[in-house]
Amino acid sequence: MSNEIDLHELRHSVSHIMAQAVQKLYPNVKLGIGPAIDDGFYYDFKTDTPFTTDDLKKIEKEMIKIIKGKEKFERFEMSYEEAKKALADQGETFKVELLEDHKDEAISFYKNGDFTDLCAGPHIEHTGRVKAFKLLSVAGAYWRGDEKREMLQRIYGTAFATKDELQAYLTQLEEAEKRDHRKLGNELDLFSIHHQEAGPGLIYWHPRGSIVRRVIEDFWKKTHEDNGYQLVYTPHLVKVDLWKTSGHYQMQYPMYFTEIDGDEYGVKPMNCPGHILIYKTQTRSYRDLPIRQAEMGTVYRHEKSGVLHGMLRVRGFTQDDAHVFCTPGQLLDEMLSILGLIDYILGIFGFEYQAYLSTRPEKSVGSDENWEMATNALREALDKKGLPYIEDPGEGVFYGPKIDFKIKDAIGRTWQLSTVQVDFNLPERFDMKFIDNDGEQKHPVMIHRAIFGSFERFMGILIEHFAGAFPIWCAPEQAILVPIADRHIDYCKEVAQKFRAAGLRATVDTRNEKLGYKIRSAQTQKIPYMLVTGDKEVEDGHVAVRTRTGGDEGAVPVQDVIDRILQEVREYK
Question: Second label for 342, Cα 20 to 30 Å away, from 91, 94, 443, 493?
Answer without folding.
Answer: 443
